[in-house]
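Re: export button greyed out
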Amino acid sequence: MSELNPPVVDFAPDRWGNPAHAVTLPDSLQATLDGLGIHPVATPVAPEDVVLPGSAVPQETREALAGVVGAAYVSEDAIDRLRHTRGWSTPDILKMRAGDASDAPDLVLRPGDHDEVVEVLRVCSDARVAVVPYSGGTSVVGGLAPEREGFDGVVALDLQRLDGLAALDPVSRTATLRAGTRGPRAEELLQADGFTLGHFPQSYEGASIGGYAAARSAGQSSAGYGRFDDMVVGLVVATPRGTLTLGTAPRSATGPDLRQLLLGSEGIFGVITSVTVRVRPVPSVRVFEGWRFASFDDGAQAVRRLAQDGPLPTVLRLSDEVETALNLADPASAGSGSAGCLAITGYEGEPTEVEARRAAASAVLEECGGVALGEEAGEKWRVGRFHGPYLRDPLLDAGAFVETLETATFWSNVGPLKQAVTEAVQAALLAYELPSLVMCHISHVYETGASLYFTVACPQRPEALAQWESAKAAANAAIRASGAAISHHHGVGRDHRETYAEEIGPLGTEVLRAVKSTLDPAGILNPGVLVTR
Amino acid sequence: MSELNPPVVDFAPDRWGNPAHAVTLPDSLQATLDGLGIHPVATPVAPEDVVLPGSAVPQETREALAGVVGAAYVSEDAIDRLRHTRGWSTPDILKMRAGDASDAPDLVLRPGDHDEVVEVLRVCSDARVAVVPYSGGTSVVGGLAPEREGFDGVVALDLQRLDGLAALDPVSRTATLRAGTRGPRAEELLQADGFTLGHFPQSYEGASIGGYAAARSAGQSSAGYGRFDDMVVGLVVATPRGTLTLGTAPRSATGPDLRQLLLGSEGIFGVITSVTVRVRPVPSVRVFEGWRFASFDDGAQAVRRLAQDGPLPTVLRLSDEVETALNLADPASAGSGSAGCLAITGYEGEPTEVEARRAAASAVLEECGGVALGEEAGEKWRVGRFHGPYLRDPLLDAGAFVETLETATFWSNVGPLKQAVTEAVQAALLAYELPSLVMCHISHVYETGASLYFTVACPQRPEALAQWESAKAAANAAIRASGAAISHHHGVGRDHRETYAEEIGPLGTEVLRAVKSTLDPAGILNPGVLVTR
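Workaround output, generated via the alternate export path:
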């Protein structure tokens, strides 16, 4: 799995992922854009030309913070601040391309351990300085853009120095990883001891352990390895009131599961500084395959059968007709996909078990009308699986607008929800005379339901941000109206908080505010994220 | 599975379970007691001779409550009040046998639907009357004994009229069950539609859906069907502030999982009035087997291998040497067990899958030194599995003291924890010159750890309650010192709340208090349970 372990890199502030993995538009896709009359709309402002607002943190506070973490770990460098501004959503990237750095933090702090984090939070509480916990910086829901009002500045609390494996219990198969450890580094460390986390979200190259926990990440192998919140057995959390240490057993009946209150809390209750996770032995065999279904409904029925009656592959995904035809997941051949609906199955484990599971799952897929495409199609997906999002940057350059959104629901609602979201987004964009492509896949399955992941593409206009806001609002409304969850794994951030408030109701929101007031009385932690202030 | 569906019965206030299933002591066990010089210590007070305290709820409040639920559903009947006094722990039963009804509720209310529950909570909040939510009444941790101080009386809110299946979605495989539906009734209703919940805790005959959720129940088939909290996809909760409706998807990234905050909340945040659960098709095949291991360590290694590398049986349990020898689980032959350590494996599902899983699991058990005892031993356990606890009543009559406690930890700590708890309990009882038998089994397994379930037996002295309190405190301290959870599935109640407070720390306790203040500002719900007031 060496391709899962690239060296740590500095990410660019204005594009997806690792600059070394940047891609260009394949001719097939360029031709499609030309045919639609899509042309570049604006030249992006280079990061070095972006003008940053002055730093608002008072000198006294700055010195106090330097006293905690060391002067070398308090940064005001412009590119450093820019790199900690917002996340990886298309609106975030478009704002950055427009040279808008209004959300930039005043300082970037890099504490060295848990105790320094606690102390930073104490200093910032006293000084009323807002703190944005920053681990991977890969939020696509506005989870890193704080509200400044009422604060004497904003600091980004970068956890990159909280790195590495703190403990490994090979008998219990648990590992304690520090929050700033990025996905590839965690795999490297665990695999050295023969273990794997098995967590490979789309943001894998950039996201880190703390972010996985804080945002309830779900990886591409969730069918086999579970979601990240399934893997967590313990958490250490620094709050302005001190330390919360949670997780005394795999599972228990000792009251509410407070781990589940911190998971998904997106930094508003505290800063997760280390996470104890369940790990598994590195699998000795890995097989990926492609399957074709005549329709999305046929494919959905097949993946539902596997999710409910088993056996479950380690990876199980199903693209709809549009996504299969456009094939954006593969930069090398994007724009030249195929007919029907592509499903990907993957199996990891020991040879005998993998072969038995694969045979039984294949029999179910065939019974449901699936046609096996062989390992080449599966391997192509596996190798390219982190590359798809890199297409967005050249697409934005070429004048296209591309964004994703996702939701989750129970099986009986999968079809109606898919249709409702698609129609809502297309209608909202048509109101701006923007024809759009809305494609969808099922990326995560459960016995009782699944997630739906949508990619939307349309021409990019100068008013793209407002236009997308309208389409996104329409999607959110459709999701709410159908009773589904406003996010399956992207999280709430600022982009979803109004819809989220509807989802959990006024009492649910009050509960979250009460927890926040208890742990963060000054309200400095990621203000404006998850719940309105 | 017709034996899983007995008719609803009235339980006695002073003994375990269904009076129709009462057992007598087998001669083998009586001989053991005689040999130890154990003789009856006191004749229990008959329930009809117990003198109840007067009812403290003011007439005005009583009338307001009758206005909400109807006069027919407000009961002051002595036996009715007695039946709603405390739960099924040995201390609870001993108090009742001693004629101590000091914890009896003043009234028993039986609301007819969710809205009536909300209204009852509003009336009781205004009148400062404490409310003990009562579904199955099977708590063994003091979860039903409220603190009266500061209240104008205590009402037991019996949910038995909130009964039945409110909705079934066969495509998503979800069912919405009203909170008061007892386990057997839930199975009866689901099985009529071809589904099963697969949740069979020891309290199955008495416990109900709302209690399963409120106390994070775990059933004997947890290896195959999961714990009850794994099954829950939605909850409706009546609080003094109104209704909380949770669960829009199987899983999501929409903030903290608030379902997990209500699960295990033991009635202090609100009254769970209905639960939507994942259901599965009724299995067509069921096979149970016995296995013998030379030692607990060998057996523990075997069940760990199945839990970590699979395949997992549907039921997987391992008794230690003492428990295997004493065989208290089987009233018919208790006292005449066998050597070594007995493990029980059970498999449920479709024939081909069950056979494959059984063969693969059996190979692992054999590799780890297990000797197959065949289906008779397994079937004996299955048939008798709800009968073991009925032995306690004749044992108490005979002058023995018997009680259970349980915990959970990570695999590497299973051996040390078992030893520490055993030694702590025995030492504490020896301080009272009480020799004791401490037996243990692993009842629930996870990839990273397991639960340990202890049964303690010793002579019953007139000071049994104080003696047990001392032993229990020693066990709690040993559990805390080893970093394990104070309960795996019994819950916190009042008996564990001090140790629980240590487990989650002062900040964790403050978080729970903040949530309670938000949902139950008058603090009427189950006061004194889970957290001190």
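Residues 1-7 of chain B have pLDDT under 50 and may be disordered. The button fix ships in the next patch.
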